[in-house]
Task: inverse folding
């Protein structure tokens, strides 16, 4: 009997160590509960019209495809001069894993040449230039131009904020063509389905 209890004690310790290692390897604090009703913090801002429009269009597409993803839309906040930033400390629900992260740039294509637009990541460790993501996407084209930032959000050495600057050949036309500030869209999948 002592052997059986010792075995279970050792097995429990091994499982605890694995759980701790995987928890530390996780990139997000997946501690949000899936409560239907929550207290809304006082500092929550109303999403931009472009974000709300894209949310409605995207969820309509998700329903048509009968896809079971969680999608989160996050407006940017102002960084340094002409920068748009998002926190990299993204909350997620337990059992979720990041599938993709895109910055959507809502522009009026009658004013701006889409081929000349790029995003420059501004950080101490990364100055990458992002080109438009033109492959199939769940996000309708009316949402804006898509820039894939999944690897930059998921990077182990990430900073507290992901900040980008919009690069265009003619900055003057960009000002007239930008319909709303860019916003971040993340998709999450369940990873502990049994």
Result:
């Amino acid at each position: 009997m002592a052997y059986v209890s010792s075995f279970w004690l050792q097995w429990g310790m091994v499982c605890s160590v694995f759980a701790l290692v995987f928890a530390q390897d996780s990139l997000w604090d997946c501690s949000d509960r899936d409560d239907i009703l929550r207290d809304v913090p006082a500092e929550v801002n109303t999403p931009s019209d472009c974000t709300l429009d894209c949310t409605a269009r995207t969820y309509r597409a998700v329903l048509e495809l009968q896809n079971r993803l969680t999608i989160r839309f996050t407006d940017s906040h102002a960084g340094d001069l002409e920068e748009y930033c998002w926190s990299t400390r993204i909350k997620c629900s337990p059992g979720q894993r990041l599938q993709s992260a895109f910055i959507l740039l809502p522009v009026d294509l009658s004013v701006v040449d889409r081929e000349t637009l790029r995003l420059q990541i501004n950080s101490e460790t990364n100055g990458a230039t992002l080109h438009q993501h033109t492959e199939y996407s769940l996000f309708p084209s009316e949402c804006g131009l898509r820039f894939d930032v999944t690897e930059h959000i998921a990077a182990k050495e990430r900073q507290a904020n992901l900040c980008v600057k919009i690069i265009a050949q003619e900055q003057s036309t960009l000002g007239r063509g930008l319909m709303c500030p860019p916003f971040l869209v993340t998709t999450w999948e369940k990873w502990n389905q049994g």
